[in-house]
UniProtKB/TrEMBL annotation:
InterPro entries: GPCR_Rhodpsn, GPCR_Rhodpsn_7TM, Olfact_rcpt. It is a multi-pass membrane protein. One of its GO terms (molecular function) is olfactory receptor activity. Keywords: Cell membrane, G-protein coupled receptor, Membrane, Olfaction, Receptor, Sensory transduction, Transducer, Transmembrane, Transmembrane helix. The lineage of its organism: Eukaryota, Metazoa, Chordata, Craniata, Vertebrata. Gene3D superfamilies: Rhodopsin 7-helix transmembrane proteins. It comes from Marmota monax. Residues 1-234 form the G-protein coupled receptors family 1 profile domain. This is G-protein coupled receptors family 1 profile domain-containing protein.
């Protein structure tokens, strides 16, 4: 569990770092611009990390399924080599898909249009700059959404259903509470991330200013708010993490008193 939590924590850190610093610079300088190469790099990294998180959330759901439904076989099934392989495949799938979408997006002619209707470079906003028909790109993007987002959601729901059925059979109330907390935290993260990300693609070609604003807010939510909340959701409901934080704070306080 902690191996995958470390992966998603590092991923979320990189996820926000790919967009937030540039966003803050634009706000501070009132410049609101980004170089062409910077836009390509931002789109590639942001997409790669986003798709990787989609796959990683489904892998974490499988890990929880094995831990709760097959507890006696957990160490045999989820051995360290398998966990490393799953994490590696997750990153490869995410950035391979990102490479394809980034190349297809920037091959489109712009015809002098370089005003991005978003807080950062993302595929829906970049497609709006093209002066040719983008239906091929839109079909490819929706296929990628189905493969990378919808299918993992189905796997996560399948795991959650089986986990819920296993929890109901647990006789210990403490065991049921612990299992519910673990599954509940993961399900909350999945709902926030997938819900906002999939909804954001509904505003791929907004016709009104209100639709554009909704698209920007959704992009900001799944690109900034959700990665920021993920560590809090996972850690605040974990007894081991809370115990480690209390121990760390206790040591710092003790050192402060000794220094005084």
């Amino acid at each position: 569990m902690y191996f995958f939590l470390a992966n998603i924590s590092f991923l979320d850190l990189c996820y926000t770092t790919s967009t937030v610093p540039e966003m803050l610079i634009n706000i501070h300088n009132h410049k609101r611009s980004i170089s062409y190469v910077g836009c390509i790099a931002q789109l590639f990294i942001f997409l790669g990390l986003g798709f990787s998180e989609c796959v990683l959330l489904s892998v974490m759901a499988f890990d929880q399924y094995v831990a709760i439904c097959q507890p006696l076989h957990y160490t045999v099934i989820m051995h360290s080599w398998l966990c490393q392989q799953l994490a590696t495949v997750t990153w490869i799938i995410g950035f391979s898909n990102s490479l394809v979408q980034t190349v297809l997006t920037f091959l489109l002619p712009r015809c002098g249009q370089y005003r991005v209707e978003s807080f950062f470079c993302e595929v829906p906003a970049m497609l709006q700059l093209s002066c040719v028909d983008t239906w091929i790109n839109e079909v490819e993007m929706y296929v990628a959404v189905i493969v990378i987002k919808v299918i993992p959601v189905g796997l996560i729901l399948f795991s959650c259903i089986n986990i819920f059925r296993a929890i109901v059979r647990i006789q210990s109330s403490e065991g049921r509470k612990k299992a519910f907390n673990t599954c509940g935290s993961h399900l909350l993260v999945v709902i926030m991330f997938y819900g906002s990300a999939i909804s954001g693609y509904a505003y791929m070609a907004p016709k009104s200013n209100s639709a554009k604003l909704k698209g920007k807010l959704l992009a900001l939510f799944y690109g900034l708010i959700t990665p920021m909340l993920n560590p809090l959701i996972y850690t605040l409901r974990n007894k081991d993490v809370k115990r480690a934080i209390n121990k760390l704070l206790g040591r710092e306080q003790e050192q402060g008193w000794n220094m005084a």
